[in-house]
Amino acid sequence: MNRMMMNRRYFLQVASLTLLPVVAGCTAPAVAPTQDGQEQTDAPASDQVQLLMANYGAIPDAWVDLGKVFSEENPGINVVFEGVQATSWADYF
């Protein structure tokens, strides 16, 4: 069995290419200047995130209650449940 040894240079190249998108995703978004040249400092009021939870069939009442509790504890996230009526898993997906 012929195994290729991974040298340090190759490992660092692969690691940097793998971690670069992860690190870039963790940075803060750029602040766009307003029309008068000042930087916008506060986020718009419509920064509400909607979390959609789908289920095959009807939504249990306990899930709705859990979604309400989660939304109360995380004010920026609105949980929405959607029951998907389908005849098979292929239709569901």
Structural class: alpha+beta
* Order of helix and strand elements from N to C terminus: HEHEH
Percentage of residues in helical conformation: 25-40%
Total of DSSP H or I helical runs spanning 4+ residues: 3
Stretches with pLDDT under 50, minimum 5 residues: none
- Rg over CA atoms, rounded to whole Å, is 23 Å
Distance between the ends: 43 Å
The oligomeric state of the chains shown is single chain
Work out the strand percent: 15-25%
Question: How would you explain this protein's 3D organization?
Answer:
With 93 residues, the protein is an alpha+beta fold. It is 38% helix and 17% strand. The chain contains three helices and two strands; from the N terminus they run αβαβα. The chain has a two-stranded parallel sheet. Strand 1, helix 2 and strand 2 (77-84) form a beta-alpha-beta unit. The mean pLDDT is 74.
